[in-house]
Specification:
mainly alpha
C-alpha cells in the first residue's frame, strides 16, 4: 500500500501573525528618514530599549510577516528592496566583484 505524501504537502510560506504594538511602533520609526546613522542607533536604544543588532533582527522578521506588508505595503516593499540590495552587495564582495 502506497500513500501519496505529496498531496499533503503545501508550499512553505511565512505565517501571518498579527502585528503587536511594538511592531507598529517599529514601522512608524522606519518611516522616518535619518541623516546620520549614529542618531538612528541612539534613538533605537532610547525608544525600544534594545541594541541596534537586536532591533534589526526584529525588523528583518517583521519584513517577512505578511501582516506587515498588509499594514504598510510601500514601506515594507522599500525595506525589502534595501535588504536585498545589501545582501547582493555582501555576496559580491565575498566573491570579489562589485554589484
Amino acid at each position: 500500500m502506497s500513500t501519496d505524501h505529496a498531496a499533503d504537502h503545501t508550499p512553505s510560506q511565512p505565517t501571518s501573525q498579527p502585528l503587536s504594538e511594538r511592531d507598529h511602533e517599529i514601522l512608524a520609526f522606519e518611516r522616518q528618514w535619518w541623516k546620520y546613522a549614529g542618531s538612528k542607533e541612539q534613538a533605537i536604544k532610547e525608544l525600544f530599549d534594545m541594541s541596534s543588532t537586536r532591533y534589526y533582527q526584529v525588523l528583518n522578521a517583521l519584513l517577512d510577516n505578511p501582516a506587515a506588508l498588509e499594514a504598510d505595503p510601500m514601506l515594507i516593499k522599500r525595506l525589502r528592496r534595501m535588504r536585498a540590495s545589501r545582501q547582493r552587495a555582501r555576496t559580491g564582495r565575498r566573491l570579489g566583484f562589485t554589484v
